[in-house]
C-alpha cells in the first residue's frame, strides 16, 4: 500500500506551474498564531481555526496538559520534513509504503535563567527520516535532498543552528 494518492503529484505540478507564472506579490505567505495565556504557564494558540494547547511538565510547575513550546518546535521540523518529502515524492512518482521522521534537539536549560552566561538556544537538531519503498534508493536520496532544500522550517533553522540529517531506506542507513 502506498501512502500517496496517485494524482497528488499532478496536483502539485499544477501548483508549481501557477507559482512560476504568478505575480511575486501573490507568492508571499504569512503564518499567524494568536496565543493567549490561560493560567500560569498554560497557553492556547489559534492557528487557522485550530486550537493548540501548550503547557509545561509538572516538574516545572505546569499541569502537563499539552506539549511545551520546545516540543512544538521540534515537532514542526518533523511535520514540515514529512509534508515536503511527501510532496516531492509524489511529484517524482516515488512510492512510499512508510514515512516516519524523528526530530530531536538539545539545548541547555540553564539558559532559561542565564546561569553561567548560558544561552537557551538549540545546539543542534537531528532529523532522521525512515522510508520504506519499492523504488531505488538513489531516487529516495534525491527526494530527501530536495526536501531539505525546499522545507521552509529546515531552510530557516539551517541558517541558525547545526542541522544533522539521517536517511534510512528500507531499514538501511543511506548517506545523503
Write the layout of secondary structure elements.
Layout: H1 8-21, H2 24-27, E1 34-39, E2 42-47, E3 50-54, H3 69-92, E4 98-107, E5 122-132, H4 137-150, H5 152-157, E6 162-169, E7 172-174
Parallel strand pairs: 5-6
Antiparallel strand pairs: 1-2, 2-3, 4-5, 6-7
Helix pairs in contact: 1-3, 3-4
Question: What labels describe this entry?
Answer:
176 residues; 4-stranded mixed β-sheet; 7 strands; 3-stranded antiparallel β-sheet; single chain; globular; 5 helices; alpha+beta; GMP Synthetase, Chain A, domain 3
Briefly, what is this?
With 176 residues, the protein is of the alpha+beta class.
Mind explaining what this structure looks like?
The chain is α+β, with helices and mostly antiparallel strands. The protein has a domain at about 10-20 and about 70-175: 2-Layer Sandwich (GMP Synthetase, Chain A, domain 3). The chain contains 5 helices and 7 strands, in the order ααβββαββααββ. The protein has helices spanning about 10-20, 25, 70-90, 135-150, 150-155, and strands at about 35-40, 40-45, 50-55, 100-105, 120-130, 160-170, 170-175. A 4-stranded mixed sheet has the order 4-5-6-7, covered by helices on one side. Strands 1-2-3 form a 3-stranded antiparallel sheet, with no helix packed on it. A hairpin with a 2-residue loop joins strand 6 (about 160-170) and strand 7. Helix 3 (about 70-90) packs across helix 4 (about 135-150). The longest helix is centred in the middle third of the chain and has 24 residues, at about 70-90. It is globular, with a radius of gyration of 19 Å. The chain starts with 7 loop residues before the first helix and ends with a strand.
Amino acid at each position: 500500500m502506498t501512502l500517496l494518492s496517485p494524482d497528488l503529484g499532478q496536483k502539485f505540478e499544477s501548483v508549481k506551474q501557477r507559482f512560476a507564472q504568478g505575480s511575486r506579490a501573490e507568492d508571499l505567505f504569512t503564518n499567524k498564531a494568536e496565543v493567549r495565556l490561560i493560567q500560569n504557564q498554560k497557553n492556547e494558540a489559534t492557528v487557522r481555526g485550530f486550537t493548540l494547547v501548550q503547557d509545561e511538565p509538572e516538574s516545572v510547575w505546569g499541569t502537563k496538559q499539552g506539549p511545551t513550546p520546545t516540543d512544538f518546535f521540534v515537532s514542526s521540523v518533523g511535520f514540515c520534513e514529512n509534508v515536503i518529502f511527501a510532496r516531492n515524492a509524489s511529484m517524482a512518482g516515488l512510492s512510499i509504503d512508510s514515512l516516519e521522521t524523528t526530530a530531536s534537539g538539545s539545548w541547555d536549560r540553564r539558559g532559561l535563567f542565564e546561569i553561567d552566561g548560558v544561552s537557551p538556544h538549540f545546539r543542534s537538531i537531528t532529523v532522521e527520516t525512515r522510508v520504506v519503498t519499492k523504488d531505488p534508493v538513489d531516487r529516495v536520496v534525491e527526494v530527501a535532498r530536495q526536501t531539505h532544500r525546499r522545507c521552509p522550517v529546515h531552510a530557516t533553522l539551517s541558517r541558525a543552528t547545526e542541522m544533522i540529517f539521517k536517511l534510512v531506506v528500507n531499514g538501511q542507513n543511506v548517506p545523503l
